[in-house]
């Protein structure tokens, strides 16, 4: 009987070990993470990305991982990196231009072709991740807002070359070189101030993504948006590195796999949203202004080269190495 009992226990042990190995028995514990977001809950970049990421994680964790989200009303977008670095918050959803003074490596993803799978297979995401780990952050995902990212929104028509001659254009640091090359003067300004500045003529336009202008209701105060569209938007979800290192491998895998899926899903999703956004703006009084054929053919190059220039000026060799890697794969200018 003792032999039978020992044999039975051994079989039971091996069965449990096998189930654990193949994931049938989950060792994942319930956990709520805190996340800072650079955007208000009703803004497209937040509402069309953050809930999707949360749903993916929830699905992959059988509902055991949840998030508590705080926005720029709690910590302003330009000040959010440090609280996540030191662990006041677990996660950060942002655009890297907001912390370019600390590192510009992340913002240069905007100069690299949108191909989520290739970006990971060719080591682009790993390279950026390694750079942020030096700052105490783990890159979980880098979702893009569509195949293309940007356009200009203007108070007045384009009348010649350069197309932005003499205009004051709001834009984050990523846009500055391009705005100057098109004859304009870049202006730094929080998103919350753009509507009033456009309305009063403090600025003549704004560089912005292909979604979100309707949320900000710019169609109420200006009449034009430009073509062609250009560039890419590389938003990012980071996690405090110490918190990441404390996680089990199962939990880490859940977060990374959710991040990879988010990157793939977001491209098509935002391409569809951009079509709806443009239709809405046209229906509500805006019209499309085109750059000259010469300038139109140069917009993607001007954008990418401008982003790289800013990145190299701020972060030197680390950005030059990333550009070299992207050039070797024909993914940038």
From TrEMBL:
One GO-annotated biological process of the protein: transmembrane transport
Gene3D superfamilies, A to Z: Bacterial extracellular solute-binding protein, family 7
Top-level taxon: Bacteria
InterPro entries tied to this protein: DctP_fam, TRAP_DctP_sf
Database matches in Pfam families: DctP
Keywords for the protein's UniProt record, in alphabetical order: Signal
Signal peptide per UniProt: none
Protein name: TRAP-type C4-dicarboxylate transport system periplasmic protein DctP
Protein's organism: Marinomonas primoryensis
Taxonomic path: Bacteria, Pseudomonadati, Pseudomonadota, Gammaproteobacteria, Oceanospirillales
């Amino acid at each position: 009987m003792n032999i039978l009992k020992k044999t039975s226990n051994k079989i039971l042990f091996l069965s449990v070990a096998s189930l654990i190995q193949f994931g049938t028995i989950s060792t994942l514990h319930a956990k709520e993470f805190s996340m800072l977001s650079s955007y208000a809950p009703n803004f497209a970049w937040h509402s069309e990305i953050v809930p999707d990421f949360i749903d993916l994680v929830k699905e992959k964790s059988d509902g055991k991982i949840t998030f508590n989200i705080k926005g720029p009303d709690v910590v302003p977008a330009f000040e959010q990196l440090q609280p996540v670095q030191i662990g006041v918050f677990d996660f950060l959803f942002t655009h890297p231009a907001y912390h370019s003074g600390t590192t510009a490596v992340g913002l240069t993803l905007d100069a690299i072709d949108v191909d989520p799978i290739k970006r990971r297979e060719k080591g682009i995401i790993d390279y950026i991740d390694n750079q942020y780990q030096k700052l105490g952050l783990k890159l979980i995902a880098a979702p893009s807002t569509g195949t293309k990212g940007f356009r200009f929104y203007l108070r007045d028509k384009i009348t010649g070359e350069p197309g932005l001659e003499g205009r004051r254009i709001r834009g984050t640091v990523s846009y500055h070189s391009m705005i100057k090359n098109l004859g304009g003067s870049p202006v730094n300004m929080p998103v919350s101030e753009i509507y009033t500045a456009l309305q009063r003529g403090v600025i003549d336009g704004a560089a912005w993504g292909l979604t979100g202008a309707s949320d900000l209701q710019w169609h109420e105060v200006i009449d034009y948006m430009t073509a062609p569209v250009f560039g890419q938007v590389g938003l990012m979800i980071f996690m405090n590195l110490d918190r990441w290192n404390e996680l089990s491998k199962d939990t880490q895998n859940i977060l990374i796999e959710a991040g990879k899926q988010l990157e793939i899903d977001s491209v098509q999703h935002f391409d569809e949203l951009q079509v709806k956004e443009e239709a809405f703006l046209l229906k509500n009084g805006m019209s499309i202004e085109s750059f000259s054929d010469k300038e139109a053919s140069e917009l993607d190059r001007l954008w990418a080269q401008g982003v790289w220039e800013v990145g190299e000026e701020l972060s030197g060799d680390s950005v030059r190495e990333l550009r070299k890697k992207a050039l070797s794969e024909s993914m940038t200018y």
